[in-house]
Amino acid sequence: MSANVPNVPDAYTVSLELADKPGELLQVLGPIATYGGNLLSIFHERGDITPRGNIPVEVDIQCSPGQLESILSALQGSDIDVVRVAGGSNNPGMIVLLTGGSIVNNISNIISALTTLSIRVIDFSVTMPPNSSTEASCILHISGNSKGTSETIDSINKIAGNYDLHVISIIDQEVEK
Amino acid sequence: MKIAIAGFGSVGQTVARLAHQNGHSVVALADSKSAIIDSSGIDINAALSSKKKKLPLGDGSMSDLLESDYDVLIEATPTFIGDAEPAFNYIKTALEMGHDVVTANKGPMAERYDEIQNICNGCNGSLRFEATVGGAIPIISTIEDMDPQNIISIRGVLNGTSNFILERMDAKSLSYDHVLLEAQDLGVAETDPSFDVGGIDTALKCVILSNILSDGGFSLSDAKIEGIEHISNHALDLAKKESHTIRLIGESTRDGIHVSPKLVPKNDVFAVRGTQNIAQINTKNGGILDLIGPGAGGGPTAAAIFADLKRLQV
After folding, report:
1. A-interface mutation test, from B150, B243, B252, B281, most A Cβ less than 10 A away
2. Position A3 pLDDT exceeds 60
3. pLDDT tens digits along B57-90
4. Which residue of A lies nearest to B175 if distances are taken between CA atoms?
5. CB count, 10 Å around CB of A33?
6. Which residue of A has its CA nearest to B231?
7. Distances from the Cα of B11 to the Cαs of A63, A71, B306, in angstroms?
8. Of B172, B205, B224, B310, which is the active-site residue?
9. Distance (Å) from the alpha carbon of A137 to chain B's nearest alpha carbon
C-alpha cells in the first residue's frame, strides 16, 4: 500500500471463488469482522458454478485500504481464491478489452506505448479462437493512476487505433452529477 | 377515439386487434398497397385475413386514409433514415389537417425532429411518440413528466436484437454468425440485420432522446456509432473470466450521442437479458431511474401507442 493513500474508509467489491464445501463462507466473514470491515452485501447466484467447480461470491465491504490489505492477506492465508478487488475511489483500476487482428504480434508494443503515457498494465490475458490465425482478444488490467477514467480510455483508444484494434471499455459507474 | 392506422405490419396489426378493447374504433386502415375506410368501424378480422392472404385491404389509397374522418392517425409504417419518407409526409399531412398523431416511427423523430416540432407549433394537432424508444417502457413520458430540463443524461440498452445475440453468445459460447442465424429464425433479427447489430437502431433512439433533452438539433449524422459485429465469443469469454459481459450501450446527452459495446459487470443493471431493454435516466434532483422492460415487438409497441392515445384524451 503506497504511503500517500489516505487511510480512510472506502467501498470495495471483493470477488471470490469458494470451494463447494460447508464452512467456506464463514472463512470469508471471519477476517472481515476481525479487521473491522463493514459488510455491506454478499452476492451469490444459486447454481452458479465456475468452470473449475467453485462457487463465485461477491462481497461488498467498507473499510480503509489498510484494513482491506489485512483482510485480503487473511483470506489468502486461508486458501480463499480472491479473483478480483474492485472499487476504492482513492485509486481505482479498470479493465479494458481489445479485439482485432494485430494483438498477438503487437501486445508488448501496446503495453509499452501505454506505459509511456503513465498507464500501467498490471496484468493481461490474450485468447485466440482455434480456427483463426490472427484474430484475437486481450483483456488489460490497468492500475489506478492520477488520470480520470475518460482520459485513460481516450489514451487507450488512441494507441489501439494505431494498431486497428477495437476497444471495449467498461461502462462508467460514476455518472455525471 | 376514431383511429386511422397507417402501416399494417406487426405493430399496425396488433394495434388494430386491440383497439376495441382499449375503447377505440378503427375507421381507416392502410398498408403500402391499399387502404380501407369505414366510418362505422372496420372489420379487423377480415382485414387481418386479407393481409394474411396477401390480398388488398380495400380499394382506397393512403391519401384517402389521410383525408378520411378520424381523430388520431396511428403512424406505424417502416422506419427509413435520411428523409424519413413516406412517414414524415403522413405525419405532416395529418397534423396540418388538425388531427392528432401517434407514431411508432423513429425516422421522422430522429432525422427531422425540428421540422416536425415547427409543424406541431403551427397547427392544432398534437403529436406523441412514446413507441419510438424502448417499446412499452415509458421513457419519453417519464422525461416529459420530470421536465427535460431536469434530466442530465440517458443511457441504456435499447436494441433487443443485439442484446439477444450478445447474451446468447456469452451464455453458450456460440459464434456471432451462429447466433445471428438463430435470431433470424426466431424472428428476433431481420434478414438484413445491419440496422440492429450495426448500432443504427440504438442510435436513432438516442438521437430522439437527445432531441427531447435539447429541444431539437440532432439527427443520425451527429451520432458516433459502433456496432457489435466485431464481438467474438472469445472476447466475451475473456470478459466472463472477469465477471463481466458485453452490452451495446447507447448514451444521450445534450452534447451528443454515443453508441458502442461496453464491458458491464455481469450482475449490473445494464446486463439485461434476452430482448429486454433498459433506460437509465440520470435526473438532477431525483437521482437515477432505471426503467426495464420489453423493448420491441407488436404487443409492447402497441401498449406504448395505447398509452399515448390515453394521454391525448386527458
Report:
1. B243
2. no
3. 999 999 999 999 999 999 999 999 999 999 999 9
4. A129
5. 11
6. A99
7. 53, 56, 12
8. B205
9. 5
CA distance A42 to chain B (A): 12
* Phi, psi of B259, rounded to the nearest 5 degrees: -130, 125
Query: B267 to chain A: which residues are within 8 Å by CB?
Result: 43, 45, 58
Tell me which residue of A1, A6, A11, A7 sits closest to A88, measured CA to CA. A11
B205 classed as catalytic: yes
pLDDT in tens, B156-189: 999 999 999 999 999 988 889 999 999 988 888 8
Q: Return the pLDDT at A129.
A: 75
Mean pLDDT computed over every residue of chain B: 95
Shortest CA gap B193–chain A (Å): 21
Q: Which of A16, A85, A156, A171 to mutate to test the interface with B (most CBs of B within 10 A)?
A: A171
Do B263 and A168 make contact, defined as CB atoms within 8 angstroms?
A: yes
Q: How confident is the model at residue A4 (pLDDT cuts 50, 70, 90)?
A: very low
Region B111-138 average pLDDT: 96
Enter the ipTM. Answer: 0.85
Q: Which CATH number fits domain A10-87: 3.40.50.10950, 3.30.70.260, 3.40.630.30, 3.10.20.70?
A: 3.30.70.260
Strand partners, A81: A17
For residue B232, the chain A residues in CB contact (below 8 A) are 99, 129, 135, 137
* DSSP annotation of B43: -
Per the CB < 8 A criterion, the answer to whether B250 and B158 are in contact is yes
**Spans of all domains in chain A:** 10-87, 93-176
A77-130 pLDDT tens trace? 888 888 888 776 544 578 999 999 888 889 999 999 998 888 888 889 998 877
Fold equal for A10-87 and A93-176: yes
Counting every residue written for chain A, the total comes to 177
Give Cα separations from A71 to A28, A38, A64 (angstroms). Answer: 9, 11, 10
Q: Residue A43's beta-bridge partner residues? A: A58
> Which CATH fold would you assign to the domain A93-176?
Alpha-Beta Plaits (3.30.70)
Between the CA of residue B229 and those of A97, A138, A166, B81, what are the distances in Å? 15, 17, 11, 20
